[in-house]
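Input structure tokens:
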């Protein structure tokens, strides 16, 4: 009966459906373009051999940890941006952008500097394969230069999403991805008179694409002169009280994403010591899985924006009802996509130049992912979309981080390094964290600590 009621509630709420479509689809397109780029990168680099796939996959773990720290900064900032936009307080939105930019650029330098100066040392942490270290260091030393540009882009994109301007990021991502794909083809394989640079060519293509992406975004934002077109003086016009409110809300999200990302990197350390075949299988699996979960991440992003706008406008009853609708949509869709993924997994595997052993591992890793998919997607929705929208960031921090460090990492170490189990079994053990997080997440969601307006006393800041 509750399922039928929820379907009826969603279908009759035309305004809610229009908001979902208007915000989710552009975010989904952008995320799909980004993940498709990773997919194409892996396909192109895969022609250079399994060790190269493993090396680049490990090198990109540095970007993965950075991107999660960056996501923490921007996601936390997005909570405040969405609620301030609910009250149409543009001045405070620009202050949030300023703080977000400063933190994002500083975070990027933490990863850029060692990536450029000691790439071999960084790769040694990730794997004990001499060849993977050599190849990965070449890639990392170049691609690390792109991190500050990524930081600037993400800070502005978060603001645009928070004020419901979601089409500009799609245009920018399209430009960047086309640039990257074309340059990948030219520089990796040495086309049109250019030298054949292999992994170095892939890194150079990524760097140029990021520069083009950031430049295009800033040009469009400041030509349109919308809420994101902030002057430097407006971005820096915050006082200590405003800064305190910002960090009270955002710091748990930053810690959350960084600690979660660091924990997931520990998985990579285990996989990297299970052999190139295991690492190649995980790299391919996770690249494809990122495409499968694009729509779910996009819905979660839309959830944070829509609920944040409603909470900022004191529409608590609407936010409560819409949160239930979002959860229903997310779980139902995850089951349907999982079934589709099951039937198309073999044709997808056939696209990659891998051995029969690696293909077998990938097939079983895909099956593990399908089985855990509803739990994983609920957790994404709950932590990123619901709990954070109302500033319940400390609870989200505990749920996310404890799942990785108390469940996932011990399972990875026991299964991969102590028992020397096959990669797909270790993968299944690691995913047990999603069940743990689902249990804690449901309990916290039902307490409704997230259902609040966190900026109601901020108008004078």
């Amino acid at each position: 009966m509750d399922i039928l009621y929820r379907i009826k509630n969603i279908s009759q709420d035309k305004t809610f459906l229009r908001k979902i479509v208007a915000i989710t689809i552009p975010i989904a397109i952008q995320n799909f373009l980004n993940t498709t780029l990773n997919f194409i990168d892996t396909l192109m680099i895969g022609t250079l051999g399994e060790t190269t796939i493993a090396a680049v996959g490990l090198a990109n773990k540095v970007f993965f940890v950075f991107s999660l720290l960056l996501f923490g900064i921007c996601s936390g900032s997005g909570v405040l941006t969405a609620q301030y936009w609910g009250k149409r307080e543009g001045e405070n939105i620009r202050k949030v952008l300023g703080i977000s930019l400063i933190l994002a650029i500083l975070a990027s330098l933490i990863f850029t500097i060692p990536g450029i100066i000691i790439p071999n040392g960084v790769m040694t942490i990730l794997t004990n394969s001499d060849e993977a270290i050599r190849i990965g260091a070449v890639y990392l030393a170049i691609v690390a230069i792109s991190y500050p540009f990524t930081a600037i882009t993400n800070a502005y994109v978060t603001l645009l999403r928070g004020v419901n301007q979601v089409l500009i990021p799609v245009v920018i991502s399209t430009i960047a991805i086309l640039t990257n794909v074309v340059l990948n083809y030219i520089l990796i394989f040495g086309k049109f008179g250019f030298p054949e640079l292999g992994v170095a060519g892939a890194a150079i293509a990524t760097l140029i694409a990021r520069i083009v992406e950031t430049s295009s975004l800033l040009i469009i934002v400041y030509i349109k002169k919308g809420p994101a077109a902030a002057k430097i003086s407006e971005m820096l016009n915050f006082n200590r009280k405003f800064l305190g409110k910002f960090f009270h809300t955002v710091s748990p999200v930053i810690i959350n994403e960084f600690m979660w990302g660091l924990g997931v990197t520990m998985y990579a350390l285990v996989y990297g010591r299970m052999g190139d075949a295991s690492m190649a299988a995980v790299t391919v699996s996770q690249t494809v899985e990122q495409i499968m979960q694009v729509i779910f991440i996009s819905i979660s992003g839309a959830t944070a924006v829509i609920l944040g706008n409603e909470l900022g406008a004191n529409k608590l009853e609407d936010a409560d009802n819409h949160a239930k609708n979002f959860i229903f949509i997310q779980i139902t869709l995850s089951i349907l996509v999982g079934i589709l993924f099951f039937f198309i997994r073999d044709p997808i595997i056939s696209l990659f130049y891998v051995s029969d052993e690696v293909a077998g591992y990938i097939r079983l890793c895909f099956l593990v992912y399908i089985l855990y998919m509803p739990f994983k997607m609920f957790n994404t929705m709950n932590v990123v979309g619901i709990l954070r929208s109302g500033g319940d960031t400390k609870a989200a921090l505990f749920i996310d981080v404890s799942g990785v460090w108390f469940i996932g990492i011990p399972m990875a170490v026991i299964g991969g390094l102590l028992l020397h189990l096959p990669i797909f079994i270790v993968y299944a053990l690691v995913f047990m964290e999603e069940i743990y997080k689902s249990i804690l997440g449901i309990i916290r969601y039902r307490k409704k600590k997230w259902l609040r307006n966190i900026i109601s006393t901020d108008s004078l800041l």
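The chain has a mean pLDDT of 87. DSSP finds 18 helices and no strands in the chain.
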